[in-house]
Amino acid sequence: MTYVFWHSYLMFHQAPYIRALAELPGNTVHWCVTEDVPAYYRGRGYPLPDTGQVRVHIAPTPEQLADLARLPGSVQVFFGLRGFALPLAAFKASLGAPVHRFLMTENRYEPGARLLPRWLLYTWDALRYRRHLRGVFCIGHSGRYGGTRFFSACGYPRDRIVPFLHVVDGAPLPPATPPPDGHKEILYVGQLIPRKRVDLLLQAFSRLDEPRARLRIIGKGPLEQDLQSLARQLGIAGRVSFVPGMPNAGIAEAMAAADALVLPSRFDGWGAVVNEALMVGTPVICSNRCGASDVIDPGRNGYVFEAGSAPALLERLRSVCRDFRWDRAALANTESIRLGGPVAAARFQHHALRLLARRATRQPTAPTPVALERAMHQGEHQP
Predict the structure, then answer these.
(1) How confident is the model at residue 220 (pLDDT cuts 50, 70, 90)?
(2) Tens of pLDDT along 18-46?
(3) Topology match between the domains 2-167+342-377 and 185-337
(4) pLDDT for position 174
(5) Rounded to the nearest 5 degrees, what angle is found at the Cα of 290, between the Cα atoms of 284 and 292?
(6) What span, in angstroms and rounded, lies between the C-alpha atoms of 333 and 279?
(7) Of 3.40.140.10, 3.40.50.880, 3.40.190.10, 3.40.50.2000, which CATH number belongs to 185-337?
């Protein structure tokens, strides 16, 4: 099978399964991007990902783009058709060719003022593009805030929206040494911006009646000083440390030394730090509006809490500090396999072949604002 992936750059949280897909017998994989790694990510220390046997095409010419997008019988995978010039150009170039097209996208269901205009834009895209697509690989698929609800409300056939995930390469590390004073260490890694709700984490942590617990916040952003001020106001400044940034290897070591990683976001299409923590054997607490909550098995590798609820987050922090028991090495081994490139590649190929084997179904009628309202509120009390 020939696969052609279209991205804006060589995404380090997509490379492992694309590389593994190229290693499966009988597969040829092309990866077409506008650039290798943007300066923004290079500045944060992200290396050029290992692409293995994948045939990489950087900034293809119009002629190369047309040739690759029209390879007979190929599976064409477009990572986003909104805001990404190369995938959209390739999608349009592929129309009329004997190829199989799939959309891959992160969940876009972000409750709040942005939801209705975003739904209108993606509904317009569905009306134009869905008849040309064999399926949608949705990163951040499940739950009441998941991509299935959003994209089906936009008009994509629900039975052709399949779950997928971001995938990262694991970092082999020696077993972490417990802190000398035996304290519990809670870790946050990410930007210090409103959407990440680090303020909620500080509020919940301030109510945690575990005097030897510590909170480590690694990241930078416009809210850094405000969050430091909030920690002082809450009386926990002595138990909270702020680290503006460190190399990726240092972050991996910090994850391996932590008792839990917390991702309290109001919304995250995915959240690759969840993968990174689990793969070094650290359980994760994340909100139910993070796409990566899809990979949390409550009580086994972490917990999911109601986004925006400090009491719910506090309950999960208590669970980790008091009740959660795990074998770090066993968890790292299990999650490194479960979330690794080979398993994700097999999952991707399975779903692609399954959807290709199905007969085309009648496209749904155009959704309406009433349909959106029903879809967004359907199952509001479901997990």
Answers:
(1) very high
(2) 999 999 999 999 999 999 999 888 877 77
(3) yes
(4) 54
(5) 60
(6) 7
(7) 3.40.50.2000
